[in-house]
Amino acid sequence: MSRSVGQKRRVILGLSLLILVLVLDQISKNWILYSYHLPERGSVQILPFLNFTMVWNHAVTFGMFGGLGAKGPWVFCIISLLAVLVLIWVIARTPRTLIAASAGAIAGGAIGNVIDRLRYGAVVDFLHAHAFGWSWYVFNVADSGIVCGVAVWMIDSLLAERQARHETTR
């Protein structure tokens, strides 16, 4: 079965975003640990609203499921890698360009955090956004890829649903 040119482009886009997020994530973490030496510095203000703050995250998003102990990293790795397989399947099958791009960004972020868990036993988080008394959790480039990917996927899905409803009412 041959793939359409459009489908091949979507696969290339999705896999390119996977690689881009993964590479940027790993380069930034390597730099923050071994060139900038953030673990020795703790927290450093970069901009009035952004700090580099070293956090070894043994849990998942927002610290959830942190009580799993030594088996936690392995559980998170297995679940993440299963999710990556599903996301790659989505990239290969979806007719929607933004879904392929989103799946790639999410998968790249998931793989980046899996690498940390296998390498360090925890995820390297270092970006801390804050302003006007508001403070966000410390995160990394992989997390940004995941969050942006999920947001774009949701927006695309809502717009597609809205368009489908509009077309059926014509």
UniProtKB/TrEMBL annotation:
It is found in: Cell membrane. The chain crosses the membrane at residues 72-91, 98-115, 135-155. It is a multi-pass membrane protein. Keywords: Aspartyl protease, Cell membrane, Hydrolase, Membrane, Protease, Transmembrane, Transmembrane helix. The active site is at D125, D143. Pathway: Protein modification; lipoprotein biosynthesis (signal peptide cleavage). Its EC number is 3.4.23.36. It catalyses: Release of signal peptides from bacterial membrane prolipoproteins. Hydrolyzes -Xaa-Yaa-Zaa-|-(S,diacylglyceryl)Cys-, in which Xaa is hydrophobic (preferably Leu), and Yaa (Ala or Ser) and Zaa (Gly or Ala) have small, neutral side chains. One of its GO terms (biological process) is proteolysis. One of its GO terms (cellular component) is plasma membrane. GO terms for molecular function: aspartic-type endopeptidase activity. Belongs to the peptidase A8 family. This protein specifically catalyzes the removal of signal peptides from prolipoproteins. This is Lipoprotein signal peptidase. It comes from Swingsia samuiensis.
